[in-house]
What does this fold into?
Amino acid sequence: MAIILQVENEINDKIAIEEAAKALAQGKTVIFPTETVYGLGANALDEAAANRIYKAKGRPSDNPLIVHIADFEMLDSLVLEISEDAKILMEKFWPGPLTLVFKKSDIVPYSTTGGLDTVAIRMPSNEIARSLIRAAGVPIAAPSANLSGKPSITDVGAALKEMVDRVDMIIVSENSEIGLESTVVDTTGEYPIILRPGKIGQKQLKEYVTKIEIDPGISNDNITPKSPGMKYTHYSPEAKVYVVEDRLRLKHLADDMVAQNKKIRVLCLDEDMELFSDYGLSLGKDIEDFGRNLFLSLRKADEDKIEILFCPKFTGDDMSEAIMNRLEKAGEIL
Ligand code: TXA
Ligand code: MG
It folds into this structure.
């Protein structure tokens, strides 16, 4: 069973952070908070430690891990080169929910990169995460802390329930602030390519680089995505998930399902509750709230044995695009 550590902030809880950092330095696995989702961490430079992550998650070994660093000094030894665009994006968005892919140096083991010659790196803005990495003194490989194929973990309750027997330590902290995983951008080519959408999307990134494209494999089933993780079924709750573009059509479909005695729920915003009053579940007042509460609500739907989850389509901004990407992967668009 994992050791459970209560950490409120990096100043009051120096001792707890030291203890977790020591475990990481010894090759153990630690679940820790980040601003995106909880991560399942281990020493990124230790092959055996990285392998423990795959085992704990039940994750296919060709799906590479993200390496988390505490400061810019940690970056240099991990990568072979840094493109001009990568420099600009790092300066603007680190620390924060942006992961950049670089050509890896020899010290990064292939177990961390799923056999690839590239390595994905991010500097989290969460203070506990950064203090932990700094105290460990090594970069920390950390995928989302969920079991492979399950929704990412954004509250420590889910981590305790799903992972307590599978890792060495769990840091208890607040719910994740953003709630969706980081944006992943490949910077090894001629121009940057978005491999996984997130809160920081094409609209924002475009302001800083001359050209940036979205990997077409993300949304087209006939093209293999460039990021290995994007080809696996992800984020799946037990319920069937349908995104419906037109809200009135959604209501119609939902009413039909209720008439067939199906247990359904419509994930929506406060403003939609009037329309979906009988079965709506508001995730908050705006799209940021929706993102923060999405994975929580997918897990809650499982607990409540919901059979069908509907969601109206959100568009127009980076966060909406990222949310739609997650829901598309969990289900289908009608
Ligand atoms: O917000 C996040 O990124 C969270 C927190 C814990 O930092 N981590 C996370 O890790 O979401 P994970 O393992 O669930 O997702 C990592 C994604 C996968 O889609 C993986 O394929 C991709 O990043 N990735 C990692 N290394 C890569 C590489 N070298 N080339 C292309 N894609 C890579
Ligand atoms: Mg994941």
